[in-house]
Design brief:
Helix 3 (69-79) packs across helix 4. The chain has helices spanning 6-10, 12-18, 69-79, 94-108, 120-124, and strands spanning 20-30, 38-43, 65-68, 83-86, 112-115, 138-141, 162-165. The protein starts with 5 loop residues before the first helix and ends with a strand. It has a single domain (22-30, 39-47, 57-165), classed as Aldolase class I (TIM Barrel), CATH 3.20.20. A seven-stranded mixed beta sheet has the order 3-1-2-4-5-6-7. It is of the alpha/beta class. It is 26% helix and 22% strand. It binds iron/sulfur cluster. Iron/sulfur cluster binds at residues 46, 48-50, 53, 58, 87-89, 117, 143-144.
Length: 168
Amino acid sequence: MTALSTNELQEPEELLKQKTLRVIDIIDGTSVDGPGLRTSIYLAGCRHACPGCHNPSTWDFAAGQDMSIASLLDVIEEAEFPVTISGGDPLYQSEGVTLLAREIKRRLGLDIWLYTGFTIEEIRASERLSQPLPYIDTIVDGPFIESKRDPSLHFRGSTNQRIIHLKH
Ligand code: SF4
């Protein structure tokens, strides 16, 4: 994992106001993106281009709006639900996701799920993609594969996708 700079560690509050994520939508109280009621944050941008993707409009990295990490934390804190970070594929915004997930854990101690089209093996092999892993509790990994679609699956679309509980 890439270490945060000394400056970032000294000025976390200012950093959280400056750093932004490109956010398409936030839904409080959803039950489809992990166990229980959750706050789901949908981030813009995806290059996996899975045939049969449920929402190709999320592929656009310019979709939605910029939100600071600080304002996202305010929304999450007010809702008090565990959190799911989805998209798009949130790992294309790995640096901001790392900051967000780190502060969710530090300040609020909430459970975090993350959905990604990368496999866990691809993530672990990449310094950039693996940055958020220390703060994520559960990853749902892998691209959506239409021929492996199974509507009876909970919290995933196709049988190749895995629900991986990370142990820290
Ligand atoms: S990873 Fe998800 S958002 Fe991206 S193309 Fe595949 S199904 Fe769609």
